[in-house]
Specification:
The chain is of the alpha+beta class and about 240 residues long. The chain folds into 2 domains: about 190 residues, BirA Bifunctional Protein, domain 2 (2-Layer Sandwich); about 40 residues, Roll (SH3 type barrels). The chain has 5 helices and 12 strands. It has a 7-stranded mixed sheet with strand order 1-2-3-7-6-5-4, sandwiched between helices. A 5-stranded antiparallel sheet has the order 11-10-9-8-12, with no helix packed on it. Helix 2 crosses helix 4 and helix 2 packs across helix 5. It is globular, with a radius of gyration of 17 Å. The termini are far apart. The relative contact order is 0.15. The chain binds biotin (BTN).
Length: about 240
């Protein structure tokens, strides 16, 4: 499989979108030392300093209906958690849908974007931003209190090369499991790492904010939130406060 490497770029998401349009195969990766315009969910920016983290976007071409796309974000989150465990010995948690926390602070974000047409998914672009070797001073003021790096949590320098290798290994393994056995086992793995499920949370969405108990996720990765009036709400996209 090909890794398209850049010392610097605006965003590996942009490179991956361009590559996907030229028809590169499933599993092609865009990887950069630095992003000058790294992007996060909900039009936020993503700090991507030179050499400090893993900034990469993976092109997947799964043969599934568009509604299944969110499952791949969850699968990627499990792959990243396993890789962090393997490389550092830390025990990360997942906050729905895609934040990976260590000791309550965010060390990884995942942004999934879609190229689709009437025939379905053409490409899924799974962007992974993993803070590896930052010091507190490397983070911008806005995120310093809520962000962390693997180095800050483990106390030692962490090999980005090992992280990339391990993430890609687990992602390939889990997508194979997905093809053979479906989402069931992977959903269980995701739930076992999740700090969101079973907790009282506040879900901030574009038009409203809902408070309730996060009861679980559906097969499609939709968060099930039970509000005080007993109603069950399906949350597709939100910021979760716990
Ligand atoms: C989030 O938590 O908001 C998602 C952050 C995703 C960041 C990664 S870094 C690699 C890829 N390129 C980008 O511009 N964004 C993603």
């Amino acid at each position: 499989k090909t890794i398209e490497y850049r010392a610097s770029c605006e965003s590996t998401q942009i490179i991956a979108h361009q590559l996907a349009q030229t028809g590169v195969p499933d599993g092609t990766v865009a990887l950069a030392e630095e992003q000058t315009a790294g992007r996060g969910r909900m039009a936020r920016k993503w700090d991507s300093a030179y050499g400090k983290g893993v900034w990469m976007s993976i092109i997947l071409r799964p043969d599934v209906p568009i509604q299944r796309a969110p499952q791949f974000t969850l699968i990627a989150a499990v792959a990243v958690v396993r890789a962090i465990e393997e490389v550092t010995g830390l025990r990360p948690d997942i906050k729905w849908p895609n934040d990976i926390l260590v000791n309550g602070k965010k060390c990884t974000g995942i942004l999934t974007e879609l190229q689709s047409d009437a025939d379905g998914i053409q490409a899924l672009i799974i962007g992974i931003g993993l803070n590896a070797n930052q010091e507190p001073a490397d983070f911008s003021d806005e995120v310093r209190d809520i962000a962390t790096s693997l180095k800050m949590e483990s106390g030692g320098h962490v090999s980005r090369q090992e992280l990339v290798r391990s993430i890609l290994f687990y992602l390939e393994q889990y997508t194979e499991i997905y093809v053979k056995e479906g989402f069931g086992v992977l959903k269980l793995m995701w739930e076992s790492y999740s700090t969101t499920i079973g907790r009282k949370v506040r879900a901030r969405m574009a038009k409203e904010t809902l408070e309730g108990i996060a009861e679980g996720i559906t097969e499609d990765g939709v968060l099930q939130l039970r509000t005080a009036d007993g109603k069950l709400h399906g949350i597709y996209s939100a910021d979760i406060e716990m």
